[in-house]
Amino acid sequence: MSKGFLLVLSGPSGSGKGTVSEALMKENDEIIYSTSITTRTPRPNEVDGENYFFRTIDEFETMVKNDELLEHAFVHTNYYGTPKEFVFNEIDKGEIVLLEIDVQGALQIKEKYKEAVFIFLLPPTMDELKSRIVKRGTESEEDINTRFSNAFKELDFVGEYDYFVVNAEVSQAVEDIENIIAAEKLRVKRHKDIKEKVMGKEKLN
To answer: Residue 90 and residue 68: Cα distance in Å, rounded?
Structure first.
């Protein structure tokens, strides 16, 4: 069995991380989605335990103190984090764990866990990015301006990632990510039994 790995997908708010992740999961049943923890208020139709684990600030800070998170960050006035135990348990089973997080969290993971695969999702243009944020209709004008301003800052960190994918069309973005996954699954370091696979029942003298 090949070794599993953590696939980190991040990018500016409005780049389409959620939409691309959802489409990717529908196309590839080998991927396990890692649900993040957040202290922000749920958006309409979001379900606790599916979209996010929604927790209070006190509950979140307790998890940080107990070292229960793989990463955590303060983004757009709220805390976000990733449950450590779930991610590593699935990787040990050989699963590909998809983690959709912001740049702050991705950089923390890169510092602590270099085995992860990092993908930065880009919008086709910044004008399109702002249009997507506005069309969501879930943020105030102040929040929209904050997210758009932060997007420019986050672009400075593209060089910290292994790959970038432009999300002009969701189907093409998903195909690009699937190609990355296919290549990563063939990395020698993820396999301990390559010789045995090739030789079958034959033995070396």
So the answer is: 16
Taking the C-alpha atoms of residue 163 and residue 165, their distance in angstroms, rounded to an integer, is: 7
Q: Are strands 31-33 and 53-54 parallel, antiparallel or unpaired?
A: unpaired
In tens, the pLDDT along 78-103 reads 998 998 888 998 899 989 999 998 88
Phi-psi bin for 185: left (phi > 0), alpha (psi -120 to 50), beta?
alpha
Structure tokens at 89: 């348990």
Q: What is the DSSP letter of 120?
A: E
Among 96, 65, 68, smallest CA distance to 82 is for 68
Q: Is residue 121 helix, strand or coil?
A: strand
More confident residue, 14 or 78: 78
